[in-house]
Each structure stands twice: as structure tokens, then as C-alpha cells.
Amino acid sequence: MTFREREKEVYRMASEDHGVLYELLAARGVTRRDFLKWCGATATLLGLSESVVPRIAAAVESAALMPQAPALWINGGACSGCTESMAQSDSPDVATVVLDLLSINYFETIMMAQGEDAEEAKTDTIADGGYICIYEGSVMRGFDGNVLRVAGKPQLEELPDLFGNAAAIISVGSCAVDGGWVAARPNPADATGVKQFCDDNGISTPVINLPTCPVNPEWVTAMVVDVLLLGELESGAILDKLDDFGRPRLIFGQTIHDNCPRRGHFENGEFVYEFGTEEEAKGFCLYAVGCKGPQTFTNCPIVRWNRRASWCVESGSPCIGCGTAGYQEGMNWVDQGAPFLNRHRDLPIGEDTTVQPTTIGWIAGAAVGGVLVAHGIGMKAAGRMDGGADYEEMKEHDRRKGGGK
Ligand code: SF4
User: How far apart are CA 168 and CA 208, in angstroms?
Assistant: First the structure.
């Protein structure tokens, strides 16, 4: 059987049955074909062969019809950009619809329930345990947690139970991973990421980190499918798929630069040095205007955003490195990457001051230049430059010492 025949066979098997699921999807504007394509893409993201497509379809159906492992989507200190990335208010993609079909008992930003009803759904789920906790935004520790109050109390108070009772935590977006923008220097709200909070409080729940700002919906659903539906959590296989920063290696294993469509221009030394120029119009490489693609590990150029329409570099912006996770030299990706349109990050001087290496270079260059000019003026004034060294008059000092010519 050829690969194409095998693929057709897999999709035929996956198309059989699941009638109820397809009706549910159709009601949300998702065709059977779109759904099967999403199953195939999810299998690829998880590093599985196409043969698991029927398994993914069956797992989504059973989870949609008989939710057993609920999920909570909790917002910490966040701009809700990750929620927006998932929801895409005009026409949600298949990933969003599938996530919606799973049992999300609490989704603060977009849920219908409000007030005590909403809180009850959350607290009951936390008490029962065994759920997937999807956490968006930073953990806000500042001012005894009072920088983020939910339902009349600091969110910080419920986090030990929320994280501790979960079967797994998926940290969505850079803020949940290492504090992101919210934790950028000088971090007045004492924000941090979920994993750091868990480590500090002795919570051992597995944490899957999905950085970027915002998160890609396809990654979230792929992880939910992996954890919730394919039993990778029980077997522990999911942990073997994570890198040192808790990121799935299949998603965060290659640099943006490796797969960038502008890479040919980089190799040819064709760069954009200024926006609004001919070089920019020609789609040259954005390295010289600060692109962090060479040091940022994600598969953005392959998966893209907004129903795979485009992504940052393709739409003309340099990569700002938001897929970077963790603290290096005490700084997260915002501190390391800013200012984003410069090749170098700011260097901290003391507590509150930062300076660009380029600026230091200019100052040092100007200082050296100034010294040379002053030296030249001094030489001229002393007469040491007149006529050049060979014709230089003997100076009084040399004469007294009996040296010189
Ligand atoms: Fe690499 Fe960025 Fe240039 Fe793309 S635009 S080739 S990621 S440096």
C-alpha cells in the first residue's frame, strides 16, 4: 500500500462513526474534513504517525460526550491575549472548537456564568481534583497577593490547591512560563511563572510550559489531547517529551531561523537596516533590525497563527524572542530581548539604569576619538608634529641630558 493509499485509509477509518461528534462540530461551523485535518496536524505536533488519527478522533468524541477529566482555564496577571488567541472572536479555528467541546468548567474571561455560580464551579472542580489546569498569565505575589484579587480575595491564596490538586498544569503564554512582561524589570508586582511558584511551595504536579506571546491555540489543544486523551500523563511519557525548560521538544526543538522563509536573504547578506526602505519591501532578512529568530526555539514558521494564515516574521516584524523560556542571568525574555528592534539587549548598570551596548560603543568610540584629537592638538602645540619625526627639533630636556640627535 502506498503512503497516499494508507493516508486515505486512515482518514476513511476516522470518518466512520463519530456521527454525533460531527454534528456538534458542524453546529460550530467546523466540517468533518477540517476536523480530520486538525487531527492529522495534532498527531504531527505530538510526533505521532498518521495512524493515530482515528484514535484522536475517537478520544475527542468520548471526551466531548462523556467528560471525565475536566479542565480549568485560570487567568493570573495577564492581558488575556492568550485567551484572545484561542477565541479569535470572528471565526474560531478547529483547535478552539475542540477545546470548547472538552469540559472546561471555568474560563473566567469568556464563560457565561458569573459571580457565585462561576466560583462554585471552580471550587468544586478544585476540591474533586484530577483536572487539567490551564493557567494564563503570571503568578502575582506582590503586596501579599493583593495585586490580583479574584472574588474578593487574593488569587495567591487558592493557588496551592489549584496547582496541587491538578493532574497536570499547562502554562500557556510567556507570562505563565516565567512571568513574561508582567515580571519585566523592575517587577513591582513580584510576578513569576507557575513552575517557579510550584517549586517554591513544594508542589510536584507536572508543568508543561508553552511560552510565546500569545500562545498558539494548536499547541494548547495538542497538549490537552496528549495529556487528557492519549494517556501520556499516566504513563509518564509526556515528561520525557519536555526539554529542560518544561517545553515540548517537538514544538520548541528548532530555532525560528532554521525554518524562516527569509533565511536565504540572511545567507546572502541581504538585510533590512531601516523600515520603510526598498530592502524591507523586498522581504530581506530582519536580523539587522533586531530579529531574535536565530536564538529563539519554536516552530512558529511551520504552525503559524490565525488558522495558519501568517506569523510575525512573515508579516514583517522581527522575531522578539517570546518563545524563550526561563531566567538567564536573572532576566526573562523581555529583559533579555528589549529593546526589541535593536540587535543587542540593554545592559543593566546599577539598580535602575540600563544602557545599550551600541551606545557604549559610540561613547567609547567618541571618547577614544576625543583623546586622539586632544593628543594631536597637544602634539601640534608642543611642536612635535611640525615637519615630522625626522626633522623634529631637539627639545630642551633632551639637550640637557645630552641625548637626541
Ligand atoms: Fe533568521 Fe530573523 Fe532573518 Fe528570519 S528574519 S532569517 S529568523 S534573522
Answer: 8
Residue 255's nearest CA partner among 302, 217, 216 is 302
Q: Residue 136 CB: number of other CB atoms within 10 A? A: 30
The neighbouring-strand residues paired with 328 are: 331
Q: In angstroms, what is the span from residue 45 Cα to ligand 1's centroid?
A: 23
The per-type count for the chain, helices as H runs and strands as E runs, is: 21, 11
Q: How far is the CA of 369 from the centre of ligand 1 (A)?
A: 34
C-alpha cell at 88: 479569535
Q: Please give the single-letter amino acid code of residue 254.
A: Q
Give the closest residue (by CA) to ligand 1 atom 1: 257
Cβ contact 58:48 at 8 Å: no
What is the CA(85)–ligand 1 centre distance, in A? 24
Nearest atom, ligand 1, residue 287 CA: 8
Say how many Å lie between the CA of residue 346 and the centre of ligand 1. 21
Evaluate whether 59 touches 65 at the Cβ level (below 8 Å).
Answer: no
Q: C-alpha 118: how far from its chain's center? A: 29
Ligand 1 centroid – CA 222 distance (Å): 27
**All structural domains of the chain:** 3-240 (3.40.50.700), 256-355 (4.10.480.10)
User: What's the mean per-residue pLDDT of the chain?
Assistant: 81
Kindly list the protein residues whose Cβ atom lies closer than 6 A to any atom of ligand 1: 256-257, 260, 262-263, 266, 285-287, 291, 293-294, 313, 319
Q: pLDDT tens for residues 296-316?
A: 999 999 989 887 889 999 999
Please, which residues bridge with residue 285 across strands? 271
**Grid coordinates representing 376?**
594631536
Pull the grid cell for residue 148.
490580583
The alpha carbons of the chain give a radius of gyration, in whole angstroms, of 29
Alpha helix (H) residue ranges in 247-292 = 249-252, 256-259, 263-267, 278-281
Ligand 1 atom closest to 256 (CA): 7
* Tens-digit pLDDT profile for residues 120-172: 888 998 999 988 899 999 999 999 999 999 989 999 999 999 999 998 999 99
User: Distance between CA 404 and CA 206 in Å, rounded?
Assistant: 81
CB 147 within 8 A of CB 189: yes
Closest C-alpha to 242, from 259, 213, 215, 219: 219
Return the DSSP state at 137.
S
